[in-house]
Structures are given as structure tokens and as C-alpha cells.
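Action item from last week, closing it out:
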Amino acid sequence: MHFMAPSDKTDLEKLGVFLRANFRLDQRIEAINNRKIYSLEIELTRRCNLECNYCYNSSSRSPGIPDFDFNLLKRVLREAYDYGIRSITYLGGEPTLHPELKDIIKFTKTIGMEEVVLYTNGTLLDDVLLEVINEYVDSIVIHLDSVDKIVFSEVHDIDIDTSYRFHESILRNIHILKSSGYDSKQIRLCLTLFRSSYESLEKTLRWAIHEEGMLTSIFIPVVPIGKGTQITSKNQLSLNEIQDAYNIRAKIENRRELLTLGPSEYFKQYQLTVAYITSHGDILPYAGVEHSVGNIINSSLSDILRENALLIYFGLNDFGVQNNCLVGKCNKCINETYCFGTRVNGQHDNIFYTNSDRFCWI
């Protein structure tokens, strides 16, 4: 029997190893086989102290939507665990603005959830929250579009002095987070791809991966949703520039296998096994997919997931095992093992989001 040395592995095999180690690929495949959702992304608040001018859900300091009610969340989390969900991601808005975040994170782990992921802009990591993160948070994703403070200031609807202070606090808090004992390999960088962030991209990635020792980076191309509809064409990247950005990441991270996904930042099995809950209780098939399949205020989570499985799986009749329901180049793509395009980028005229990813270069 021939055993492959690491250097003998193909990019597809390397991708599988990476996804199994860091994104629970095997558990998600098992969930697909059982016609189940494996993880929830939960929007704790739409309040945000930075107000990014491309925000897909139009977060602001005063969004007019209440924060997620903790008592309701407890019920949902218990229902999620009983259903079989084992991974929870908290995001916003800025989730650290939720007044009960520390208790929410503790509760999530104490009921048996295996993984808790926190998305944050990193501006508000106080000592007590750092203790909770170290004990209960398995991975933290820092949203920072550029290590360059001038670029950072250009994309937030706040005055420049406040922007600079926030930028300094993010860099400082990353160091404090690591000094508190949190492993840098549990930290990921998230940035939105547009003109300014693209121009400082190499500098930002070298800082995050080489200087700060983060695990990897996550790219989010601007999508025409929420405030993203206000982004002008001059600030949007061409397809060639988007491809170049991913090539830069592959080189700096020494992770060429990520190119196998094209611009589909989260692989097929992730997108097919996650549901998104807004702060007002609507369940969406995916973040940015503006088609509610139910509301947890009025119904149980398990009932909604069971009754709307086809919608949550983007209308794929076989639950994503084959790509034969997708339209265009995403149908039978050479990379279909782990990718079927970002479904948000396929939302042209039909609610099932089965069109091909228009930002993909493959």
C-alpha cells in the first residue's frame, strides 16, 4: 500500500485536510447525510460602533432593532442542541455590544455545544470578556479591512480621530488577547474586498499571518445588500482583481489549496449545513440571503428547520450531494467536491439562489 507524503498530496486533498482540521468537514458531511443542519450563525445585535459603509445588514449605532433577547436565545440554543446542532457562531453588528454576551457565551458551552466562534471588530475586548473568550471561545474572527489606519478610516461613517483611536485599539487588543494566553492559531482575520482594502491587501495579510501568527484570513467581496448597494462601481473590484486578491492570500499563507474554492469563502458543506438567525428571530438559509423561512419567536427551531429544509439547502433537491440543480458554470464544476459557489452571489432573480457565482473566475 502506498502512503502519500504531505508533498504528494494534491491541492484538493490538502484542502480536505485543512477543512477537517479547522471547519469540521466530517461532521458537516455527516449532517448532510442525515438531512440536518450542523451549525447556526446568530446575529446578537445590529448595533455597531464602526458603521462600515458597505455593511450587508446596515448595522449602525441606532439600527432600530432590539438586541437578541437572552431568554429567547436560551430556548433556541436548547432546541438547537436537542436537534443535533453542535457549532454556534455569534456575530452582528458588533456582538460585544450585547450587554449579556459573556453570559451568552458561557451558557452556549455549558449546554454542550462543541464549538463557539465569535466574530468581532476587536475594539471592545475588556478583561472580563477576555477571560470568557479564553475559557469558552474556540475561534475568534477579527474583522479588520486594513492594517493601514488611513484605509481603515475611509470605510467607516465616523470622524477620522475616532477612527484612528478604534484602529489603535484593535491592534492593541489583538496583542492583549494573545498575551492573555489565547492561541494566535485560533484567530482569523476577516476583511471585505473593495478598492481600498485591495490596495493595502498584501501589507495587511503579511501583518496578520506572518507578524501576528493568525491561522488564516477570510475574504468577503462587497455584495449589493444593505449598505453594500451604496458602494460605487469605482470602489468595486473587477473579476481579475478579485482573483488576484485570492492569489495574494494563497501565496502569503502558503495555502494554494484555498484557490480550489474560487471566491466561495465557505465551502459547500458549510453553506449547506448552516442557518442564520437575525436579531429579530428570522431564520435565513445563509447570511445575506434575504429570504426568511420562519421566525423562532413564533415556532420552534427544529420545526422550522425540518419544514423548510429544501429552502435552507438553496433548493437543491438532493440536499447538495450533487450540483445538478445549479444553473450555469457552478453545475458540475471541476471543484464541486468542496465548492458550489457562494449562493449569495447567485441571487439574481429566483429565491432558490441556484444561479452560478458571478464573482468566480474558474
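Closing note: The first strand starts at residue 39 and ends at 43.
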